[in-house]
Amino acid sequence: MTVETIARLDAIASAKGVSRSAVIRWAVEDYFNSIFLGKCSPEKEEYHQEEQDRKPEQV
Q: What would the pLDDT profile of 16-59 be if each residue is shown by its tens digit?
């Protein structure tokens, strides 16, 4: 993991009031669900929205 990834995990964990390992567990569960079940958790949807908001507009 990169330093940036760890910092993002820590930010999510502190915002949710949980440990970094809990955030990693959610990410693994969401990955499994999205690949094999075609589902996505609300936390993952929120993360994707934050990522979209963070990216600059492309013209």
A: 899 999 988 888 888 887 777 776 566 666 666 666 676 665 54
Q: Domain ranges in the chain?
A: 3-54
**CB-based contacts of 33, cutoff 8 Å, min separation 6:** 39, 40, 41
| Dist. CA 47–CA 41, nearest whole Å | 10
* Cα distance between residue 48 and residue 30, in whole Å: 12
Q: DSSP labels for 1-59?
A: --HHHHHHHHHHHHHHTS-HHHHHHHHHHHHHIIIII----HHHHHHHHHHHHHSPPP-
Q: Say if pTM beats, i.e. exceeds, 0.70.
A: no
